[in-house]
């Protein structure tokens, strides 16, 4: 009886991310989870396509945490923004952020959000990792420098690729968001994630008595 209960017990769920926004999104599912920060090099490789960069980093984040937490389900995610095929990184400074927003105003930017669910119960199997990349098409408003500068001083999104936090005041910079997964732009595509978790045997709704 004890062995059966252990077999059926759900695995620990870990979010491999330092992002509080991803943590808040995952909390919506009502599942118990832990947070671990992966230690990896997030630099893109030479001649690597934006989608490939996002997918690789999402998998590396999940695998790095899974190695230190055997037998767990680990979520890794990464996002790469592109304009005209060129990657838009984290600005780091006010000046760089302003340049980014000036370049993107009135334009359509693609945010590639990659998601990996690493099943530590199947580490030796090719099925250990489920991977997907969700594109989100964001059209920025054509706003004057004064408004862009004012926004940056209020929210200071200097650690955010694209220099705008749609989950905050940055939504006022946007004219349109097009995506099959509404939380992808914030960094964690919950529709895709719930599909992956179901595939891994996770249930979301208890049965009625």
Give the topology:
Blueprint: H1 2-8, E1 13-16, H2 20-27, E2 34-36, H3 50-68, E3 73-83, E4 86-88, H4 94-104, E5 108-119, E6 129-140, H5 145-155, E7 174-178, H6 190-199
Parallel strand pairs: 1-2, 1-3
Antiparallel strand pairs: 3-4, 3-5, 5-6, 6-7
Helix pairs in contact: 4-5
Description:
Strands 1, 2, 3, 4, 5, 6 and 7 form a 7-stranded mixed sheet that branches. The radius of gyration is 19 Å and the shape is elongated. It has 209 residues and is an alpha/beta fold. The longest helix is centred in the first third of the chain and has 19 residues, at 50-68. The protein has helices spanning 2-8, 20-27, 50-68, 94-104, 145-155, 190-199, and strands at 13-16, 34-36, 73-83, 86-88, 108-119, 129-140, 174-178. The two termini are 22 Å apart. It has a single domain (2-199), classed as Maf protein (Alpha-Beta Complex). Helix 2 (20-27) links the parallel strand 1 and strand 2 (34-36).
Characteristics:
209 residues; alpha/beta; Maf protein; 7 strands; elongated; disordered N terminus
Summarize the structure.
The chain is α/β, with parallel strands linked by helices. Helices cover 32% and strands 24% of the residues. The longest helix has 19 residues, at 50-68.
């Amino acid at each position: 009886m004890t062995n059966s209960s252990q077999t059926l017990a759900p695995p620990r769920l870990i979010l491999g991310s330092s992002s509080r926004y991803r943590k808040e999104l995952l909390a919506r599912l009502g599942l118990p989870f832990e947070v671990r920060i992966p230690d990896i090099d997030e630099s893109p490789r030479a001649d690597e396509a934006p989608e490939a960069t996002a997918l690789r980093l999402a998998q590396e984040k999940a695998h790095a945490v899974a190695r230190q937490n055997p037998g767990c389900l680990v979520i890794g995610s990464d996002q790469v923004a592109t304009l005209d095929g060129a990657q838009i990184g984290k600005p780091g400074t006010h000046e760089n952020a302003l340049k980014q927003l000036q370049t993107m105003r009135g334009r359509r930017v693609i945010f590639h959000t990659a998601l990996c669910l690493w099943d530590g119960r199947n580490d030796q199997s090719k099925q250990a990792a489920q991977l997907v990349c969700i594109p989100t098409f964001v059209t920025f408003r054509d706003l004057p420098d004064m408004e862009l500068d004012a926004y940056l001083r209020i929210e200071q999104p200097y650690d955010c690729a694209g220099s705008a936090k749609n989950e905050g005041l940055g939504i006022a910079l946007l004219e349109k968001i097009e995506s099959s997964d509404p939380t992808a732009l914030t960094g964690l595509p919950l529709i895709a994630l719930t599909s992956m978790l179901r595939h891994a045997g996770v249930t979301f709704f208890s049965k009625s008595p």
